[in-house]
Write a structure and sequence with these properties.
Length: about 170
């Protein structure tokens, strides 16, 4: 995939229970209301089974299909029976204006770091491309912009600025 085919990506990262999903959902809603085509990708830490044993798509996969899709009047599901890297997933999002990613902390895309407690700030040193910090209170002394987690407008504006700068 050429670099020009890759939509802008902004990651929302942090430890568990820092309200990443809540923030990402609120940003999706705000951007969508503004006419943006937004895709999302979520990293799940455990194993995942979306198919149902004995159903047709399950049988296709069990027979050895590398990818299985099922589509209906209201949605389409693509099942790939292996874990995909973030860049592989992004390839499916060519038509999006932005892709918001929850997780994949070690990827190199621009990130907003969700902080639930002061100890979480150590991630600034561990991760690449952190562009801002989101928390329940203002964080100072990091050299990065700080956003209150309920300031969806401000955080969405930060996402748009990242897209404009990097996209």
């Amino acid at each position: 995939m050429d670099a020009k085919d890759i939509p802008p990506v902004v990651q929302i990262v942090g430890y568990s229970q820092t309200r990443k999903t809540t923030l990402l959902s609120r940003c999706v809603s705000q951007l969508s209301q503004e006419g943006w085509r937004v895709g999302t990708i979520k990293r799940h830490a455990g194993t995942l089974e979306m198919d149902e044993q004995g159903k047709d798509t399950w049988r296709h996969r069990e027979a050895g299909a590398n990818q299985v899709a099922i589509t209906s009047d209201n949605q389409t599901v693509l099942i790939v029976p292996r874990s995909l890297q973030l860049d592989e997933l992004i390839a499916y999002y060519r038509e999006m204006d932005v892709v918001l990613v929850e997780g994949f902390k070690r990827a190199s895309y621009p990130k907003l770091l969700m902080v639930g407690e002061k100890g979480h700030l150590s991630l600034i040193r561990e991760l690449s491309n952190v562009r801002g910090i989101v928390s329940h209170k203002r964080i100072t002394g990091t050299g990065l912009p700080s956003y209150l987690r309920d300031d969806v407008h401000g955080i969405t504006e930060a996402v748009k600025q990242i897209v404009e700068t990097d996209g």
